[in-house]
């Protein structure tokens, strides 16, 4: 498939920055057309972002609004309004010329002193672009608001990673690649084929959290493969390329789907995580009462915490036993999945981690592969 058919867009920090620039320009009585220009930094590119509305709220305060466009992605933030309220002071008495805050709909980091979930790239983007439009005597306070943030956050795994009450301004780049568009699969497959000429063992990571953690524990970044939700096709590609072993490295709320035979992990297509967790609890011999409690958990992270609390209260080892069963099943079902399409003796291991980024369990084969990757 020609990937030109898959249109890229921009990440949320870009629209937040564009809104802030527009609001600042309005306060400075600068002419605003239908767009504002900004430097993405990564990549090194200047882009024009449409502005929906801009208005002065008070003499020194203005509001501007952009609309999120993530490109050809199955992205729940599509068409989400992003507001920026800018307060301008023309007699700068502050040590900080630019202060960035999270308003309604921006999440809070429960593991980081309730700080706003506005991460490094977003801060860098806002500071870099806004500073160009400020004189040495001017300072601003920028408040980013996502009116639909709380509602949308309920459909994400944000809480699993310690972000509550809204969405994150997250990302390492300004471009939103169409990871869920079919054309992106062609690119991922080509990258895998090229790397298969150099290595016989790979670590498959569904998302950025897995990639980051894998590198932090010392795994060679050249052996990491970001799969997004295209696990199934990339596993088969690895088999066709005669890859000898794959370590599946990911958040348990995603990888658990593989234990149920779900190899395209986007939530729009399939789920069943809670049911898989309950099934393995039943397999190991968990009581009916606890199984019923597990089934009422809203997320797999809630289920994990329930099991850990049970272990702490009773001195049992249900978490380790159940997750060991899940991890070993992931290995078996993944190997069987590849073998349906390719004749291979590829080895599969798995590592599952929680929202605190600590490893919950490593499968038997996973331990062997981790040693090999050190």
UniProtKB/TrEMBL annotation:
- A single Pfam family it belongs to is CbiD
Q: In which pathway does it act?
A: Cofactor biosynthesis; adenosylcobalamin biosynthesis; cob(II)yrinate a,c-diamide from sirohydrochlorin (anaerobic route): step 6/10
Q: Which UniProt keywords apply?
A: Cobalamin biosynthesis, Methyltransferase, S-adenosyl-L-methionine, Transferase
Q: What is the lineage of its organism?
A: Bacteria, Bacillati, Cyanobacteriota, Cyanophyceae, Oscillatoriophycideae
The protein here is known as Cobalt-precorrin-5B C(1)-methyltransferase
Q: Which GO terms describe its biological process?
A: anaerobic cobalamin biosynthetic process; methylation
Record's catalysed reaction(s): Co-precorrin-5B + S-adenosyl-L-methionine = Co-precorrin-6A + S-adenosyl-L-homocysteine
For this protein, what is the EC number?
Answer: 2.1.1.195
Top EC class of this enzyme:
transferase
Annotated signal sequence is none
Family of this protein: Belongs to the CbiD family.
InterPro entries, A to Z: CbiD, CbiD_sf
UniProt xrefs under SUPFAM superfamilies? CbiD-like
Record the organism.
Aphanothece sacrum FPU1
GO molecular function annotation: cobalt-precorrin-5B C1-methyltransferase activity
């Amino acid at each position: 498939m020609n990937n030109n058919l898959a249109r890229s867009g921009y990440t949320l920090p870009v629209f937040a920055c564009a809104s802030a620039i527009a609001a600042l320009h309005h306060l400075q009585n600068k002419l605003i057309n239908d767009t504002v220009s900004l430097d993405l930094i990564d990549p090194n590119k200047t882009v024009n972002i449409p502005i929906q509305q801009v208005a002065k709220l008070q003499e020194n305060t203005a509001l501007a609004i952009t609309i999120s466009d993530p490109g050809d992605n199955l992205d729940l933030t599509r068409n989400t309004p992003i507001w920026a309220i800018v307060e301008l002071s023309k007699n700068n008495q502050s040590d900080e010329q630019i202060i960035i805050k999270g308003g309604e709909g921006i999440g809070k980091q429960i593991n980081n002193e309730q700080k706003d979930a506005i991460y490094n790239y977003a801060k860098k983007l806002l500071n870099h672009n806004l500073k160009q439009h400020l004189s040495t005597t001017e300072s601003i306070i920028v408040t980013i608001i996502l009116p639909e943030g709380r509602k949308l956050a309920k459909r994400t795994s944000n809480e699993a990673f310690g972000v509550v009450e809204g969405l994150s301004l997250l990302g390492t780049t300004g471009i939103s690649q169409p990871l869920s568009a079919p054309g992106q699969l062609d690119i991922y497959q080509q990258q895998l084929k090229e790397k298969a000429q150099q290595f016989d063992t790979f670590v498959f990571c569904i998302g950025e959290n897995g990639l980051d953690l894998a590198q932090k524990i010392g795994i060679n970044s050249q052996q990491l493969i970001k799969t997004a939700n295209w696990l199934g096709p990339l596993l088969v590609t690895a088999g066709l390329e005669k890859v000898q072993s794959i370590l599946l490295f990911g958040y348990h709320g995603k990888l658990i789907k593989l234990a149920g035979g779900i190899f395209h992990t986007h939530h729009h297509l399939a789920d069943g995580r809670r049911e898989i967790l309950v099934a393995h609890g039943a397999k190991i011999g968990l009581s009916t009462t606890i199984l019923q409690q597990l089934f009422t958990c809203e997320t797999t992270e809630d289920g994990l915490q329930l099991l850990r609390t049970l272990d702490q209260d009773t001195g049992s080892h249900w978490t380790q036993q159940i997750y060991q069963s899940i991890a070993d099943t992931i290995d078996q079902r993944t190997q069987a999945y590849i073998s349906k399409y390719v004749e291979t003796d590829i080895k599969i291991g798995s590592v599952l981690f929680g929202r605190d980024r600590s490893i919950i369990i490593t499968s038997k084969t996973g331990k062997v592969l981790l040693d090999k990757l050190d």
